Amino acid sequence: MPDRFHKPTLFPGGMFEAFLGGEDPAQISRVAHETARALLARVRENPDSEIVDRLVAYTDQHGIDAIAELWSRSNAKSLPGALWRIYLLRLLIRQDAEGTAYLYQRGSEVLSSIDTVVAGAPNPTGPAEITALADTILRGLFEGDFAVALDRAAAFCRVAAAGAASVADDRDTLDSDRASELTTRALRFTRFAEELTACARLWRSDSLD
Known about the structure:
By secondary structure, the protein is mainly alpha-helical. It is built from ten helices and no strands. The protein is 71% helix and 0% strand. Helix 2 crosses helix 8 (127-143).
């Protein structure tokens, strides 16, 4: 069982896996879905900017523990699963804004798709721009088009994955361990992109629960 995190939480960049626990899975799932639905419905019905600001910055003040306990073990293609992934992505970006911006910028240079347009980060993309993008995407869940926010997050992941894979190729002969780490990061970003895209599709068909 992984160590518990305590604030200030530094969530290692390579850890995309859910937390493990011994509680009743059915109860955990029920609580996760109920809290996700209640939070989202309440805020989206009255998206007060001050409340949204507090929700966006929640993990900055309280760490990732509470959100992880609520949502991290939820199905990837569910409402709590989607919320968990967006919060986790934001935390990962903020903890290494320079490194993430570098991967994203590289990805935007090597990827031939509209993902950079969908994600919406300025070009060139530095630490300040990538951090602002993370906040904008999370805010979009509460006060914008939920599916669009998920699509933007998925596009970000695809660009970052392409960047990580490209840098891994560069490092392969010089530092195989680092290259392997970046390849793993690229695969995890790709998996997140697939899951978030599926969640956006489910939301549009009113099927994301």
